[in-house]
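Technical annex, item 7. During the second reporting period the consortium partners agreed on a shared format for inverse folding records so that results from different sites could be compared directly. Each record opens with the tokenized structure and is followed by the designed sequence. A conforming record, contributed by the partner at site C, is shown below for reference.
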């Protein structure tokens, strides 16, 4: 069994992962609309990874014989000023998620819920990777500035994501 507070926090995090997924999907749609298919592909992949994160937590709550209570997902932003702006948001969002995971981890430790703490180790490592990737793309976009050849090159690089 899970403590009520941990159960609520995990259900809340499932919603947060879905919101992250939804946000990436909205960004992907924007990139599709301006024919930057490489960016769109990268963002779609990111969106489906966030769904996997949500499902990993979903399965964990079930494994602990606790209750899943799904929550409403907010509407994501649909308009973006620029790619740099978009990827600044990506980085901000990932940093925010890192903060959420850390809080969840602290809660698990405080309640002596070692199983949840161990489950969260994977998420803590994953966030290091997520922030690293977002920072790298954002830095490249800042270097590229208004140079469309550089942006198109980055688009083709991001399109190679498996
Ligand atoms: Mg995630």
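Designed sequence (site C submission):
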């Amino acid at each position: 069994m899970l403590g009520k507070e941990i159960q609520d926090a995990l259900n809340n995090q499932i919603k947060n992962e879905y919101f992250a997924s939804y946000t990436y999907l909205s960004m992907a749609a924007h990139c599709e609309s301006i024919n930057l298919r490489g960016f769109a592909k990268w963002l779609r992949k990111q969106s489906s990874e966030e769904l996997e994160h949500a499902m990993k937590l979903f399965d964990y709550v079930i494994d602990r014989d606790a209750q899943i209570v799904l929550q409403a997902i907010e509407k994501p932003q649909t308009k973006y000023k620029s790619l740099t702006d978009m990827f600044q948001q990506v980085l901000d969002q990932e940093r925010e998620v890192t903060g959420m995971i850390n809080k969840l981890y602290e809660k698990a430790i405080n309640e002596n819920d070692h199983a949840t703490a161990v489950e969260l180790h994977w998420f803590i490592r994953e966030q290091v990777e997520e922030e690293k990737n977002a920072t790298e793309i954002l830095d490249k976009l800042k270097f590229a500035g208004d140079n469309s050849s550089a942006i198109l090159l980055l688009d083709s690089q991001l399109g190679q994501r498996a």
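Residues 114-144 form the longest helix (31 residues). Helices lie at 4-33, 37-63, 83-110, 114-144, 148-158. All partners now use this format for quarterly exchanges.
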